[in-house]
Amino acid sequence: MTPSVVQFERTPRLDARTHEKRIGLVILATDHTTEPDFARIVASDRIGIYVNRIPYANPVTPDNLRAMQGELEQGAALILPDDPLDVVMYSCTSASVMIGDDAISRTIRAAKPEAQVVTPTAAAVTALKTVGARRISVLTPYTVDTTEPMAAYFAAQGFELDKVSCLGLTDDRQMARIAKDELVAFAREAMSDKSDALFISCTALRAASVVARIEGRIAKPVVSSNLATAWMCLRLCDDHDSRPQLGRLMTLPLER
Fold this sequence. Notes:
The protein is of the alpha/beta class. The protein has helices at about 35-40, 60-65, 70-75, 95-100, 100-110, 120-130, 145-155, 170-175, 180-190, 210-220, 225-235, and strands at about 20-30, 45-55, 85-90, 115-120, 135-140, 160-165, 195-200, 220-225.
């Protein structure tokens, strides 16, 4: 015989939030990498990570990347719908080039007006300037057609590009499976001796976990898409801890 259920007369005391800071991630349906990277680098007892996925269909082409713009507002709106977010990060580097940082920010803020918006491209620009880079080399997993607009974006931001290399892939699920040792090897080949830093594009790549290894090989700072967004999200959430094991960028402050 089961006992009668007794309801406490005292109502539980509620904290204001489950986490002091909230970061929303708007990521692609096919993304294998952003969530694990943010769980490893950003999430903590103080910072909560909340994720929503939006439709995306391979191959990675300029047209398919632009097509995501219509999904961004709803994608952000469905992350804790009744609660404000401190930061919203849209996790696609190549689409950020095609759609534009400002357009992405406006669209996301239509759903989350209180949030600071982070894109991989804008975060990478800030990160590269923070490590003191004026001349850069760029490595992407994309085809030439998708890489050329990426190179033009960074040139328009004032960087001198010494070398731009790409791997010719069109499926972001394959990009996520590139072996980490291969990422290190290709990064070494992609780096020009003239450059101050290397940028590795694409949130699908597992590059953030090997940035420190690459820096040890090329003796120059390395910025990857996910490392740049993780760094910026942490700093915007007032986490200023130095994490040298993750690379030079993660030891530096964000100048606001």
